[in-house]
Amino acid sequence: MIFKKPIQMILLGFAIWFCLLVGVGQNQTIAATLTNAESISQQRIQTLPEPPNLESGVDRFLTSIPAGYYTIANVEKLKSVLKNPQTLLVDVREPSEYQSGHIPNAINIPLRTLAHNLEQIPHDRPVVLYCSSGYRSAMGVMTLHLLDYENVQGFPPSFAGWQAAGEAIAFR
């Protein structure tokens, strides 16, 4: 959509050029009108504001991420966080993965449906996301932070780390 106006101006320029080429230029009134239109369209192209620089916006976001990137680094720290009954633990894996075993008391909101289930994620309580290896939970944390959730952390050791530590696993 950003390029719609410049494309229209280019098309207008081609139309004017074509008209002049096939003889409209013979009529001075039409030629003068078309020349003025071309001049105005060139001025509009030159005065269009520069589109925002996506790279600098992404850079600002990435450099604003604090050390530790909103993470809970190990199983013991997660167990400590989960002692708070207000903490919501969210498994962002697919339902079949969740059903084959998950961290006790976790709810399942697959990453691909996260934005459609925001009503289940509170703004005023701690929220911890995990998946099977850390990748999807990191994407979920970033997504929720971009949606103004400041209470969200990820658990990078994820389900694999929980299992490797010999912790209890729930099945539904």
UniProtKB/TrEMBL annotation:
A Pfam family assignment: Rhodanese
InterPro entries in the record: GlpE_sulfurtransferase, Rhodanese-like_dom, Rhodanese-like_dom_sf
Record-annotated Rhodanese domain positions: 83-171
Name of protein: Rhodanese-like domain-containing protein
Species assigned in the record: Nostoc parmelioides FACHB-3921
Lineage, highest ranks first: Bacteria, Bacillati, Cyanobacteriota, Cyanophyceae, Nostocales
